[in-house]
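Model it.
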Amino acid sequence: MQSTFQNWLEIKEGKTERTAYSYVTSINRISKHFQVNEKKSINIYKITSLEVLRPIAELYNKEGKYADFGDLSNGTNRAAINAYLKFVANPENYAELVKKFQKENSFDSERNLQSTLIYQIDSLFPEYTLEGEKYQIEGKEIDVLLKKGDELLVVELKKGEAKYNTFGQVSMYIGLLKEKFPNNIVKGCIIANSIDKSLEYACRNNPDVSLKTYLLKIELVDF
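Modeled.
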């Protein structure tokens, strides 16, 4: 449901990619906030009943119990839950949006892979926050830069196979960041469809660079 909501925001509501991402992550924050404060385990993205969702949304409106939390980020939390309420009330385009999502996220380019990663930062790297995408440093461009406390994480994306030269690329980024931020711990993560053996060997004795492969996921939505 989360990915379908993202597409609905962009396609039907005309939101920018960044705004849609902000709304999507806001819903996750509201789910966590509700669980902690109401002592009830919920995932708002699993709620498709307006009767259940509407009272939750009202808690975060200006007159609601959690109005202050709704006010955060210039009211983004409140705008997000109200947008999701509108989304749930209009499910007729689910099939169309799911089809578009599957087409656009086939990872035919590293930009598509990057967009999908950014959408899911909270679930893929739950302890990190997004420091920058296409982060510029000394004329170089880091795909995604994440932060956790005093640790910076360089994320390099490859839609196909990641080879040995990717290790050198990430090592260079790490060096540049260490020079710019000497008080920070800097690590790297290479995400690709597959990993070349030479790259695997290069990373075995370097704990600062981790390797991950991605899998495509299809989400089914009732309509």
